[in-house]
Amino acid sequence: MENYTMEGRTYRYYGQEAPLYPFGYGLSYTTFQYRDLVLSPPTLPICANLSVSVVLQNTGRWDGEEVVQLYLRWEQPSVPVPRWQLVAFRRVAVPAGREIKLFFQVVAEQRAVWVQDWHLEPGTFTLFAGGQQPGQQMRVPSEVLSARFPVTGAARPLRGC
Which residues form the Fibronectin type III-like domain (predicted)? Predict the structure, then answer.
């Protein structure tokens, strides 16, 4: 085998075609609402980690569990990358009518791209938070929030941070 690219070989690189059963696919006996997605700092230095918080509310009549998923998208990478990449997830139990605030950390390594070595690049990124992948169509609606953030500084090898 001489072609080691993943393009067209895994769902992360299929382009506009969505997988039949994406990560997080499933149904619930209750409904959830996401709100107040906050990224900190709002402008991220090249080697810094990103702090994320989001509020999850159980808007249904029954207690339930939700798998909260965070995905990252590079807006203009210098090399081929996935449409979005899962960077964090957590299963949480939320009683009916209650809400919880969740905190996540997206580390710099999760923004690295492979260019003969792992590199961090400046640019604009989008972070998605919700109960499913971005753009996923399901029988039960589940919203996905998104927020853009700029990464500043000069491109550098990951090991240089």
Answer: 66-133
Please, are residues 147 and 134 in contact by the beta-carbon 8 Å criterion? no
Q: Which residue type does 21 have?
A: Y
Residue 15 has pLDDT above 80, yes or no: no
Say if residues 153 and 161 touch (Cβ distance below 8 Å).
no
Q: What is residue 110's predicted lDDT score, i.e. its pLDDT?
A: 95
Q: How far apart are CA 147 and CA 130, in angstroms?
A: 12
CB 23 within 8 A of CB 11: no
Give residue 24's identity as a one-letter amino acid code: G
Please state the pTM of the whole predicted model. Answer: 0.82
CB 71 within 8 A of CB 109: no
Tokens 């700029």 belong to: 150
All structural domains of the chain = 32-160 (2.60.40.10)
